[in-house]
Amino acid sequence: MSKYVLSFLLLSHLLFSQSAADLARWKTQASHVEIVRDTYGVPHIYGKSDADAVFGLLYAQCEDDFSRVEMNYIEKLGRMSEVKGESQVANDLYIRLIIDAEEAKADYAKSPAWLKTLLQAYADGINYYLYKNPKVKPALLTHFEPWFPLLWTDGSIGAISTGDVQAEEAAKFYQIRSSVAFTQVKAHGPDEKLTGSNGFAVGPTLSKSGHSLLYINPHVTFYFRPEVHMNSEAGMNVYGAVTWGQFFIYQGFNPYGGWMHTSSEVDVADLYSETTRTNGTGYQYQVDGRWLDIKEKQISLRVKGESNPRTVKAFYTHRGAVMASRDGRWISVRSFNRSLKSLEQSWLRTKTKGLADYTKVMEMRANTSNNTVYADNQGNIAYWHGNYVPKRDALKDWSLVQDGSTSMNDWKGLHELKEIVQVVNPETAWIQNCNSTPFTVSGTSSPKRADYPVYMAPDGENFRDKNAVRLFSRAQRMDLNGLIALGYDRNLAAFEVLLPALIRDFDARPVEALRPLVDSLRHWDYHVSNLSVAQTLAVRWGLKILPKIPKPLTFGGQSDPVQNFMNYAASHPATETVEALQAVYADLMRDFGRWNVSWGDMNRFQRLSNTAIFDDAKPSIPIPFTSSAWGQLPSYTSRPFQGSKKWYGVNGNSFVCAVEFGSKVKAYSLLAGGQQGDPTSPHFFDQSQDYADGKFKEVLFYKADVLKHVEKRYKLN
Question: Which helix (H) or strand (E) holds 214?
Answer without folding.
Answer: strand 212-217
